[in-house]
Design a protein that fits this description.
This protein has about 240 residues and is of the alpha/beta class. Helix content is about 30%, strand content about 20%. It is globular, with a radius of gyration of 17 Å. It binds 6-phosphogluconic acid.
Length: about 240
């Protein structure tokens, strides 16, 4: 596992660095394999990152966009991760509609929709029934409780290792999420984390000893790929940068 930890002076620098790294990884994947698969995170931190990526001239027809997690709401709901990414980025660039692979939330049953996305990943990545996809880029954020994607503390989703997609639970609110094995198979995992309110959880995530159930981001350890932790000064005050 190759780990990089960068602490940027402020959120603007964090966004700029994140965009530069994402664009570089997209271009590398396409140069090496003719296609790039990226899974997006939701929340507030990535929105300016997505807005800035939209300003780049990339081979959009060779980029396939997925989501790492999704709130269980309609695509036009204000809380939808899909809606945020489309408005900030995907609606602003000529990416073919078929290259956008949102998590479905229309069956009124989160388990059904999790299965549908699981099957979609199997078909797209041409997997056997027991194989997991390898995303080129996995964008992640982290909550102030140490959750990532929709893998919340002390929830069943943390234990699911035999499925690609499962149902997360945030205080009783269902969410769809990729599972830990899928996140960890990615070639590049990129955490973009900003804000002093993340400082405590980050210190726990980077502590030599700790409880993965309480701080699920501790579970994110790439099997063969690399992990980048891009932190602003507020979030990374108790973390030692390393290359
Ligand atoms: C979501 C995200 C989630 C997010 C963290 C951090 O659906 O909300 O995928 O895991 O990355 O909650 O969110 P902020 O960037 O808003 O702090």
């Amino acid at each position: 596992m190759t780990q990089h930890i960068e602490v940027l002076p402020d959120k603007t620098a964090l966004v700029e660095r994140s965009v530069a790294l994402i664009v570089e990884k997209i271009q590398t994947a396409i140069a090496q394999r003719g296609v790039c698969t990226i899974a997006l995170s939701g929340g507030s931190t990535p929105k300016p990152i997505y807005q800035a990526i939209a300003g780049h001239d990339l081979p959009w027809d060779q980029l396939h966009v997925f989501w790492g997690d999704e709130r269980y709401v309609s695509p036009d709901h204000p809380d939808s991760n899909q809606r945020m990414a489309r408005e900030a980025w995907l609606d602003q660039v000529p990416i073919p509609p078929d290259n956008i692979h949102p998590m479905p939330t229309g069956s009124q049953d989160p388990e059904t929709d999790a299965d549908l996305y699981d099957q979609h990943l199997q078909q797209f990545f041409k997997l056997e029934s027991d194989q997991f996809p390898c995303f080129d880029i996995m964008l992640l954020g982290m909550g102030d409780d140490g959750h990532t994607a929709s893998l919340f503390p002390h929830t069943e989703a943390l234990e699911i290792c035999d499925r690609r997609v499962t149902v997360g639970n945030k205080d009783g609110e269902p969410r769809l999420t990729l599972t830990v094995p899928v996140l960890n198979l990615s070639r590049t995992i990129l955490f973009a984390i900003a804000g002093e309110n993340k400082q405590g959880a980050l210190a726990q995530v980077f502590a030599p000893e700790g409880d993965e159930q309480t701080y699920p981001s501790r579970l994110i350890q790439p099997v063969e790929g690399e992990i980048w932790w891009l932190l602003d000064a507020g979030a990374g005050a108790k973390v030692t940068a390393s290359d």
